[in-house]
């Protein structure tokens, strides 16, 4: 987009190739020709950017400075824009690599966590004896509870003799049944 004729000022938007998940990085460069261009570097600045870190912006500016110095005396806008394009593609690749490394790191951490879960406590004689004492105490407690429950259930349950002593009709019930 041409912004002015004197001095010639224009902007060029540079977008990287689509990376993983169609992610792109983009920057808009503003160039202004100086009086002695191309024997003098043009003025340039980054007007806007998308998905770029501050470090990436600084790298792009350094790249523009380096390319401008190398191409003094030649028309250089195409070269500058091409260099920025390549840098943006590198940034997209770095983002992809960084995500893959983060994913691998998370997988490694999950694997280590899984190993820790199954690792447990190392068994020593002292550990085993402590555990055995607690286990035996728990078993004894359970047996005591069972015995108490059986005793309580037994108190409520009457024997045959006790039933006959309580209800005298039971004495003759069998004889009546046989007669019928």
TrEMBL record:
Residues 1-91 form the RWD domain. One of its GO terms (cellular component) is cytoplasm. Keywords: Acetylation, Phosphoprotein. The keyword Phosphoprotein applies. It comes from the Eukaryota. Residues 99-118 are annotated as: Disordered. The keyword Acetylation applies. Pfam families: DFRP_C, RWD. InterPro entries: GIR2-like, RWD_dom, UBQ-conjugating_enzyme/RWD, ZC3H15/TMA46_C. Residues 99-117 have a biased composition (Basic and acidic residues). Protects DRG2 from proteolytic degradation. Belongs to the RWDD1/GIR2 family. This is RWD domain-containing protein 1. It comes from Phainopepla nitens (Phainopepla). The gene is Rwdd1.
């Amino acid at each position: 987009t041409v912004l002015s004729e004197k001095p010639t000022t224009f902007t060029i938007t540079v977008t990287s190739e689509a990376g993983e998940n169609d992610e792109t990085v983009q920057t808009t460069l503003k160039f202004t020709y100086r009086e002695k261009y191309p024997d003098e570097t043009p003025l340039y600045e980054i007007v806007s950017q998308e998905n770029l870190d501050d470090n990436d912006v600084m790298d792009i500016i350094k790249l523009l400075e380096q390319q401008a110095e190398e191409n003094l005396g030649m028309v250089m806008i195409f070269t500058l824009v091409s260099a920025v394009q390549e840098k943006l593609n590198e940034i997209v690749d770095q983002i992809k690599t960084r995500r893959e490394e983060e994913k691998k790191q998370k997988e490694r951490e999950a694997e280590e966590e899984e190993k820790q879960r199954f690792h447990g406590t190392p068994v020593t004689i002292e550990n085993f004896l402590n555990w055995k004492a607690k286990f035996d105490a728990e078993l004894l407690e359970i047996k005591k509870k069972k015995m108490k429950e059986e005793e309580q259930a037994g108190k409520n349950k009457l024997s045959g003799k006790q039933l006959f002593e309580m209800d005298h009709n039971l004495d003759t019930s069998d004889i009546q049944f046989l007669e019928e």
